[in-house]
Sequence to fold (676 residues):
Amino acid sequence: MGILNFSRRPVVILTLGILLLGCVGLISATGGKFTTADKAFYSDEKTINFVRPGLVLRILSAEIAADGTAKARVRFTDPRGLPLDRLGITTPGTIGASFILATIPKGETLYRSYTTRVQTSPITRVAATQAGADTGGSWAQVADGEYVYTFGTKAPAGYDRTATHTVSVYANRNLTEFELGINSLDATYSFVPDGSPVTVTRDIVRTATCNKCHDKLAAHGTGGRSSMENCITCHQPQTTDPDTGNTVDMATMIHRIHTGAELPSVVAGKPYQIIGNAQSMHDFSKVRFPADARNCQACHEDSSAAAQKDAWLKPSRRACGSCHDNVNFATGENHADLPQVTDNQCSTCHTVQGELEFDLSIKGAHVIPTKSAEMAGVNFELISVADGAPGKAPTVTFSIKDKTGKPILPSEMTRLTLLLNGPNTDFGAQFTEAALTAQGNNGVYFWTFSRALPATASGSYTVGIEGYRNTTLLKGTKKEVVARDIGPNKTLAFAVTDAKAVARRTVVSTAKCNACHGTLGLHGGTRNAVEDCVMCHNPANTDAARRPATAGAAQTIDFRTMIHGMHAAGANGETFTIWGGSANNFNFGYPGRLTTCTQCHVNNSEQLPLPETAAKVNNPRSFLGVMGPETASCLACHTSKAAAAHAQVNSSALGESCSTCHGPNSDFSVNKVHAQ
Fold:
């Protein structure tokens, strides 16, 4: 295969042989066992022991000479510590690596890169200097797996030897010929050229925080740029897109990307776009943050270990103007007619926290009304179900209390709804009833449904509760606002003919949804738990009741199909549309890897086969119309006619045979085909 040339280095034969004999088990890029999400997990033992997939990159040291010549010593190994040859001659897989050299100038907080390039826009003919990877550098091997890279770029004359300097390397090991993909990562190393300790850093948002949604942060293809530490060395005010004039400074760019569709400039009709490498267009005008954008702490986490995690509490034109991009600080437009030529006075008005919510303070201005401290809270509890038998109308006993335990009357609620569905083997048509007139006392109430369970009802069923009461916040002031005090949904399984209640299977968890969504809240916020959502979003339901005839066939609102379709939309080039009061178009993509099923799924629920009791899905807009539950799950992402035909020929009146090829131990298991 042209990978190994042992005649050049006979010593390596002995070293490699000893290390391979000592290789036991499958080891991931982080040094742990490979998981079912890794391509290497499915490779044969001989290939793994020969290739030893994975890449570990470490920057051992860096220096800048008096004349500005910069060098970095790096080590490439596999996860067990075997040195790797970057040329792929004595060890499998070539390694590509790119270097960035940047500094935080004295008295400043942002990086400025020494390694730059000049990009001229073919659209505007404007030239811009941009931070980027070094060019013209040279390599010298100093030990097995260890190299000294000499930058082609020199530090400028008179550079500050007392300032923090950072070398960042992003690299990838190409193992595609072994069907083991491309192993990539980055690393950074900060130092002070005169040998002093590093005291100035930039550490605001950690990569782990990004990966709550992004699964594995990755940008610019497979090059290895996957950490905030690496990103911020280039993404700082130094770099501008000359095609659009937009900066790619991290704070500005990330704020604007995450609030894309809600930016005042986008709402006014100007798209937010960045044109990247090879004139690739990146339009973020449809991006919507999965949580409320006022929740700054979704990224600026209190629990973060970042040294400057509270940086968001210091106002600046750069950070604040990125979301509030209709503010003209030079003229004062949309800023109370107050020009602001520096950041020196920002904190005079915009303190960290004022005495009242919704004021000009940073925390106050970003209060989400439903999270207001003034909210008394609404807490539901489903206590029991009586007469939950075939042909009978169930009576539900429940409680409503505020967060102090004080009872709330049903009549005090603005909306109070009870839902009923079953059987729990797979939900069918549900029915709901308003329970505002429920009777009871001391916080405990009961409601008898006006409809009886079907005479043929069997197994177990589920009852759910949802609702809110309107609350006036800052009453009597100019900031007065009416907000919903929403109760977290609760569900309760009850036995109809079963000896003991059996709950519906758990497929995804609300906690996993909330890792991105903050607080799941649909339909005005009242549907906020997956267990509640699936009662309506079941295999039988579509948007037919609200879809106009001119909009074509109805769309299924089956939870698996809908959620897969929403999250895959954009990535597959399609728009997933559901009609409510109007058309709801989902085409803004998914922040993580769609192949990481466990980002949402629990209990191995993504595996085939699905339970035999799972119902068929009614999807009039699909190629197949009515289809089996396994087919519905897969075709929601794999939307081509070929995929539908493949599923059709593997289904019959007897059922689906998907697990024959896609079962957990099959050649094309769900895990294997989605592995990275």
